[in-house]
Automatic annotation (TrEMBL):
Residues 1-19 form the signal peptide. It comes from the Bacteria. InterPro entries: Gram-neg_bact_OMP, Gram_neg_porin_domain, Porin_dom_sf, Porin_Gram-ve, Porin_Neis. Gene3D superfamilies: Porin. It comes from Paraburkholderia sartisoli. One of its GO terms (biological process) is monoatomic ion transmembrane transport. The keyword Transmembrane applies. Keywords: Cell outer membrane, Ion transport, Membrane, Porin, Signal, Transmembrane, Transmembrane beta strand, Transport. This is Outer membrane protein (Porin). Its main location: membrane. One of its GO terms (cellular component) is cell outer membrane.
Length: 395
């Protein structure tokens, strides 16, 4: 990392100056090659899928650069900010078109005795407290997120116009809450996002629980427009039939236990509900339950190995008599060449069964879509295999 220190009195940048305020430039560049056994031309396509080899980027950790800053205000209180831009290291394009700081853009205050309060585009309290035990920690989001990232345990849900408070840790217990203002005239609810979470750490054991609700800014459901605070929302073959929901609601529990310095295990369970409105295109609430676990092994200081499994089951609703289910298996290998640079390899397999709704509301056979990296190009069949290798460096 490269750090630039500035004195608050002069407002001038200087290296090695008195540490009253600081700005840190940081980033990640992650590029590799990936193989998919079947990649359909679009979400919902039931034919035309072919195997593909392509360049992949940001698979282990999204390619990004950013600025973090803090200023000591006295009495233990500091002003803080983060501006973070994601990009495609294969093409140089923005990871989200039209958003300069698409990953994070917030400012706030922090105090070790009272906690941290921030405002801007950021992650919800739900994600922040649950994420230490997310399957994406060792399996990545692109290959290892629960199918389509239905439960928002990857970084794909970033929220605009949000206010977030996180408490300090009290004997291992931490709480957090967030509210994102929808800004829709005549309604405090439309377009808003709110969440809460609690986390407890005690030696090698940790557990967290959270709740998150995302409300559509369009009255009665329909297309999620720019007034929705969580925008754009991930759409995949898993949830395509429910993308016009009036609201999305999530309850999740994650946890983990470290057996030793070499072995640890994490687990997760989530319940996700897509709630219909008058213009949603589906009539009954759709529910997805997911359970998963990841075993992590570090045989030597430079090598991390992990294996994971998750099972997702959809409810029988809206004419579906055999709810979709998804079995996903993952392996990962991460070899550190230095403190900043590493090589990695990923392998994943997913099998889909049952039926689901297409984007047009038709009942179709469920198709596989590994993690959340294939949201736009899922398999056109029940199964999908993914393999990726890459290099990552941090600065």
């Amino acid at each position: 990392m490269k750090k630039v220190i500035a004195t608050s009195a002069l407002g001038l940048f200087a290296i090695g100056a008195q540490a009253q305020s600081s700005v840190t430039l940081y980033g990640i560049v992650d590029t590799g090659i990936g193989y998919l056994s079947s990649s359909a031309p679009s979400v919902g396509a039931t034919s035309g899928g072919h195997s593909v080899v392509k360049m992949i980027n940001g698979i282990w950790a999204g390619s990004r650069f950013g600025l973090k800053g803090s200023e000591d205000l006295g009495g233990g209180t500091a002003a803080i900010f983060t501006l973070e831009e994601g990009f495609n290291s294969a093409t140089g394009a923005q990871s989200t078109s039209g958003l300069a700081f698409n990953r994070q853009a917030f400012v706030g205050l922090t105090n070790p005795a009272y906690g941290t309060f921030t405002a801007g585009r950021q992650y919800t309290a739900y994600y922040t407290l649950l994420s230490p035990y997310s399957p994406t920690t060792w399996l990545t989001g692109a290959y290892g997120a629960h199918p389509g990232d239905l439960d928002s345990l990857d970084t794909t849900y970033r929220v605009n116009n949000s206010l977030v408070y996180q408490s300090p840790s009290f004997r291992g217990l931490k709480v957090a809450g967030s509210y994102s203002v929808g800004g829709v005239a005549g309604s405090l609810d439309a377009g808003s996002t709110w969440s809460a979470g609690v986390q407890y750490l005690n030696g090698p054991f940790g557990i967290a629980a959270g709740f998150q609700r995302i409300n559509n800014a369009t009255n009665g459901g329909g297309a999620w427009n720019v007034n929705s605070t969580t925008n754009p929302l991930p759409v995949s073959a898993i949830n395509a039939g429910y993308q016009a929901a009036q609201a999305q609601q999530r309850v999740a529990v994650t946890g983990g236990y470290a057996f030793s310095k070499q072995w640890d295990v994490s687990f997760s369970y989530s319940n996700v509900q897509y709630i219909p409105g008058t213009h949603s295109g589906f009539a009954s609430e759709a529910v997805f339950n997911t359970a998963g676990a990841v075993l992590h092994f570090k045989p030597i200081p430079t090598l991390d190995l992990a294996a994971g499994y998750s099972y997702t089951r959809a409810s029988e609703a809206n004419g579906v008599t055999s709810g979709a289910s998804y079995n996903q298996f993952n392996l990962s290998q991460y070899y550190s060449l230095s403190k900043r640079t590493a090589l990695y390899a990923l392998e994943a397999y997913q099998r889909a069964n049952g039926q689901t709704l297409s984007a047009t509301g038709r009942i179709i056979n469920a198709t596989a879509s590994i993690g959340d990296g294939q949201n736009g190009t899922p398999s056109s069949s029940r199964s999908q295999v993914g393999v990726g290798v890459g290099i990552i460096t941090k600065f």
